[in-house]
Each structure stands twice: as C-alpha cells, then as structure tokens.
Specification:
Blueprint: H1 7-15, H2 33-60, H3 65-70, H4 83-92, H5 97-129, H6 135-147, H7 154-163, H8 171-177, H9 181-194, H10 197-205, H11 210-221, H12 223-238, H13 242-247, H14 256-268, H15 279-300
Protein name: Carbohydrate ABC transporter permease
Membrane topology: Multi-pass membrane protein
Keywords: Cell membrane, Membrane, Transmembrane, Transmembrane helix, Transport
Length: 315
C-alpha cells in the first residue's frame, strides 16, 4: 500500500525554517563599558589596598635602621641591600627565640586550623543535610555568635581556662582556636548545594551508613569549601594577638605576634640599644612571618575548584 504526498504542502513545509534552526539573537550584556570600567577601577583599588602594605614591608625589610627613615618607602635604601643581614640578626637575637616563636605559631595555627576545619565541616554538613529538633534554633545561635566581638569573650574565656588551670599553656591558645562559627556557617551554605541529596540516598540504598557517607562522599565534594575554611582558620590563628597576650606569660610559649610586639615595645622604649635600633629587626621578622602564609595559599589554591560533583548524579 503506497501513500501519496501533497506536493504543495511538502514544498511549503520545506520552505518554512525549523524552529531549532532559527538564529537566536545574542543577549545584550548587562555590564556596559562604563560599568566595566568602574568595576575594574574598584578591583584595582581593592588590590592596591591589600598589596601596597606587603610591597612596602618587602622594601622595608631590605633596609637598615638608618635607611628606614632616610629613604622612600617603596624604594631601596642608598646604604645597601640589608635583607640577608637583617634575617640573620632576627634569627640570632636572644639565642634564636624568633625560631621558637615561629614553631609555636605553626603549632597553634596548624592544630587549631585542622580542628576548626573538621568541626566546621561536620557542623555545616549536618545543618545543611539533616532535619533534627532544634536545628533552626541552633543555627540562629551560630549566626548570633558570629556577631559577638572576640574582645567581649576575652574575660570569660580567661576565667574559664584559669579555673581549669590551662592558662599559660599551649592549650589556652589551641582550644579556643578550634571553634569557628563563621567556618560552620560557610560550610553549611556550601554543603547545601555541593552535596546532592539524591547521591546520599543512593549511598543509603547501597547500605552505606551516615558516617561513611560523610567521610567517603561528603568530604570529597566539600573539598573546595574545606580548603577555604582551613585557610581562614590558619590566617586567623597565625595573626591572633589578643588571645595569646592574655593567656600566656611565658616567653617560650609566645607566638610571633606577641613576640614581635615585645620587640617593638623594647625598641620604642629605648631598651633595644638606642631608641629605634630594633625597628629593622621587627619589620624583617614581620616580613618573614608572612612568607609561610603566602606559600600555603599558593599551594592550596589549586583545590579551589568548582564542579567537583559534576557527573556524580545523572540527570
């Protein structure tokens, strides 16, 4: 049995372009050249705000005490390049106490950041993926704690640790550092989208427990957020000054922030061998103290990737 085709209809259908073949006009960008220029200028200002102090610090670390006050801040001094001499003086002063402070800082920042990252990741994952009684109330308390200034908690924290006989110990700096309300909030926001609920349900069907799902699936998908929280925690603990200042009175336990502040106080009070004789050492010590953070950031930035969960769930 044969079928006949209407030539008029077929020809008209052939002339009519298909919807999928129609050229779609390009959408106009919401960012005009004027807005783009303003955004570029804003980013340049932000970059200058953060980078200019570091550039000044790098130049200042190459100068002697005299060169600090007789040369332009963003240029080398005329009396020579003193960076390596300054570094040698920093590590040799007071029988190498700077190296001990550097080790203490690395210990406080490393242990505190690892603990803060684990707790923040677990808390954020639980807030994002589980329903339990009091969830909203606890999360509200978490948000409220972010708004509380650290100075307001200084006296209660000191009294608490004093009652536990933990003041003037390393634990007095490490234990408060592992609490990161902002890190938990950040991980909650990130886990809400990064960990697909259907993926968790598939794992439950396969017999995986909740702890196994968290360790083998959740942590892998949360890797960029984990790195972000870890870096925030490292920087916060590395630069922490007020907490170790009130908790510690043993110079052998000081971090770099408190130790360098003591050198600065000695320098300005005239006890460092003639007024400003220690300014170059304080500045060089500050410059050396930021180098580990720079290397850590450059090493971990490769883990800041998006779309780690792409392809894990089929549409």
């Amino acid at each position: 049995m044969t079928s006949t085709l209407n030539p008029t209809r077929s020809s008209s259908a052939a002339k009519k372009p298909a919807h999928g073949n129609r050229a779609v006009p390009p959408r106009k960008s919401a960012i005009t050249p004027r807005k783009s220029g303003l955004l570029t200028a804003l980013m340049v200002c932000v970059a200058a705000y953060f980078l200019l102090p570091l550039i000044w610090l790098a130049f200042a670390a190459t100068k002697s005490d005299t060169g600090l006050f007789t040369s332009f801040g963003f240029a080398f001094a005329s009396d020579g390049f003193k960076l390596f001499d300054n570094i040698a003086s920093v590590f040799a002063y007071q029988d190498g106490v700077f190296l001990k402070w550097l080790g203490n800082t690395a210990l406080y920042a490393g242990v505190g950041a690892i603990g803060a990252t684990l707790l923040a990741t677990a808390a954020g994952y639980a807030f994002a993926k589980y329903e339990f009684p009091g969830r909203k109330a606890l999360f509200s308390v978490l948000l409220g704690s972010i708004m509380v200034p650290l100075t307001a908690l200084a006296v209660p924290t000191y009294l608490l640790f004093s009652g536990m006989q933990l003041t003037n110990t390393m634990w007095a700096v490490i234990l408060p550092s592992i609490i990161s309300p902002f890190g938990a909030y950040l991980m909650r926001v990130y886990a809400a989208d990064a960990v697909d609920t259907s993926l968790m349900e598939s794992a439950r069907i396969d017999g995986a427990g909740e702890l196994r799902i968290f360790w083998q699936i959740g942590l892998r998908l949360l890797a960029p957020g984990i790195v972000t929280v870890f870096l925030f925690a490292v920087v916060a603990t590395w630069n922490n000054y007020f907490l170790p200042l009130i908790m510690l009175n043993n110079g052998d336990l000081f971090p770099l922030t408190v130790g360098l502040a003591q050198w600065q106080a000695t320098s300005t009070s005239g006890g460092g061998g003639g007024g400003g004789a220690m300014f170059s050492m304080v500045i060089t010590g500050s410059f050396v103290s930021i180098i580990p953070l720079i290397f850590l950031f450059l090493y971990l930035q490769r883990y800041w990737q998006s779309g780690l969960a792409a392809g894990s769930v089929k549409g």
